[in-house]
Amino acid sequence: LTRLLPRHQRPVMVWNPPGSTNGRLSPEEQAFELAVHQGHVFPVFQPVTDRHYETKGFEILIRWRRDGQEMQPADFLPNIRSPGNWLLLTAFVISEAVRQINATAGDWYFAINVPAFVAGSKALISMLETARQQLNDPTRAERLVLEFSETTDVSRSGVKENIREMQRGGHRILLDDCFSSHSVTFPARQVRFNGYKLDKSIVDTFMHNHHDASLIQSLVVYCQLNDVECIAEGVDSPEKFNALCRAGVTGFQGYYLSGPVYRESLDETVRQLQTRHNNITRTGDAGTCK
C-alpha cells in the first residue's frame, strides 16, 4: 500500500507505554493506522449511472470495522489530524481504484475523494504517477477520477497546480458538494473542472424550493455550455430522479439506484442496474424523463 507514497512521507507507526504523551499519534490515530494495514478499514462502492440506468462509474467510500461495528466516515475522519494518516488514507483509496480499473478492464471509472490536507501536496502527484505506472493500460488514467470538495481552498499553495498536473496526466477532476449547506465558494473561474456534483442537501430540497431549483438549473446550463458532466448525489426516489433528469442532469448517484456495496457485490450491482436499463429499453422509455 505505502509504495504509492514517497519514502520520506511514509507514515511511521509509533507505540508508547501507557501514559506516555511523547508519541506523534494519538491512540485513536494509532488505531486507525493499524486498522488500515490490517484491512479493517475497507472500501465500499456506490455506482453512478446515466439517465438510462447504465453504470458509468463508482465512487469509492470507506468504512472502518471496529469492535464489531461498521463505522461511517463521519464517525472517525474528524479525529484524523496527522499528515501521515491523511496520506496513508489517500494512498489506500488510490490503490483500490487502480485495482478495480485493472480488474474491470477500464469498463467503469472509479472516483476517490481528495482530502483537503492532501489537495496541495506534491505527494499526491507522486502517488498518481505511481498509480498510472501500475495500470495495465496507461490510457486508462481517465478512469481514475478525483473529487475535490467545493469547500477546498483552491487558492491555497499548490492546489490549482496539482489539479492542472493531474489533468495533464489524463485524470478527470470533479468538483464535489456543489451548493451544500456549507458552501462558501464556487471556484469555477480558478479551475476548469471536468464535472460537477450536486450535494445531497440541495437534491433533498429542490423539488419544493424554487431558489434551489434555479441553482441546479444554472449549473446544468453551465455544464452543457462547457460540455462537462453534471451529477446529482443523494438521489433516493424516482420523483427526484425524474425531476433531475428533466432538468438536464446527466449523472445520478443515490439509494434509488443503489447504496454503497462491498467489493464482492460490484458485478451483481451492475447486473441489477443493467436489468433496469433493459426494462426501460423494452418498454420504449429509453431516453425519456417521466
| Total of helices | 9
Bin the strand percentage. 15-25%
- Distance from N terminus to C terminus (CA atoms, Å) equals 46 Å
Which structural class matches the secondary elements?
alpha/beta
| Main CATH class | Alpha Beta
User: Secondary-structure element sequence?
Assistant: HEEEHHEHEHEEHHEHEH
Unreliable residue stretches:
8-22
GO molecular function: cyclic-guanylate-specific phosphodiesterase activity
InterPro entries: Cyclic-di-GMP_PDE-like, EAL_dom, EAL_sf
Protein name: EAL domain, c-di-GMP-specific phosphodiesterase class I (Or its enzymatically inactive variant)
Domain EAL: 25-274
What would the keywords be for this entry?
about 290 residues; alpha/beta; TIM Barrel; 9-stranded mixed sheet; 9 helices; 9 strands; globular
Structure in words:
The chain has helices at about 25-40, 75, 85-105, 120-135, 160-170, 200-205, 210-225, 240-245, 265-280; strands at about 40-50, 55-65, 70, 110-115, 145-150, 175-180, 195-200, 230, 250. With about 290 residues, it is of the alpha/beta class. It has one domain (about 1-280): TIM Barrel (Alpha-Beta Barrel). Strands 1, 2, 3, 4, 5, 6, 7, 8 and 9 form a nine-stranded mixed sheet that branches. Helix 1 packs parallel to helix 3 (about 85-105) and helix 3 packs parallel to helix 4. The protein starts with about 25 loop residues before the first helix and ends in an 8-residue tail after the last helix. About 35% of the residues are buried. The model is unreliable at about 10-20 (pLDDT under 50). One of its GO terms (molecular function) is cyclic-guanylate-specific phosphodiesterase activity. This is EAL domain, c-di-GMP-specific phosphodiesterase class I (Or its enzymatically inactive variant). InterPro entries: Cyclic-di-GMP_PDE-like, EAL_dom, EAL_sf.
